[in-house]
Amino acid sequence: MRIKIKKLFFVFIIAIGFNNFVLASENLHLGDSQAKITVKVFSSLTCPHCADFHSAIFDKLKNEFIDKQIVRFEHHSFPLDLAALNAEKILRCTENKEKSFLLLNKIYKEQNKWAVGSDINKINDSIIKIGLEFKLSKNKMLNCLNDEKIQDQILNARIEAQKKYKISSTPSIFINEKKYDGKFNYVDFKKHLNKLL
Question: What is the pTM (predicted TM-score) of this model?
Fold first, then answer.
């Protein structure tokens, strides 16, 4: 079962205002841009099913396909709430792609620790603690959390993704621009990829 998009978050986006959005920055990705297969994962960092998919698929996919330049993997931010949005901001504080994915792994792994409660300040503090483990400075992360340009990039990318892909739940996975509706386990996912080679 996947997480359905929360209508409340659309209200949140509208409240921020569409007119101030800038073009979205490049999505977090690994792998050869000329790879035969591109896997796009639209996910919210507070979505348990997104964390389950990532933990079940990513590491094995990286070892068997991404590192061998067979697959390009793209993480597309699709935050469903303010906590997920802020976690994405911290994720963008890293400039090294490999490090960003290590941080992404940790954010998903510890999701049930930081993505709890309704106090956004406590949630932010918990996310920052994770970032500190990756040698990100607290000041840099606070700047990222308060950076309106980063926020606009994330939300604009979400809006564009909604328009183009008609996303109704997270995670939504697209393989070579076709939606993947198979099982969220590596055996089935790998079989699907091998059919495209």
Answer: 0.86
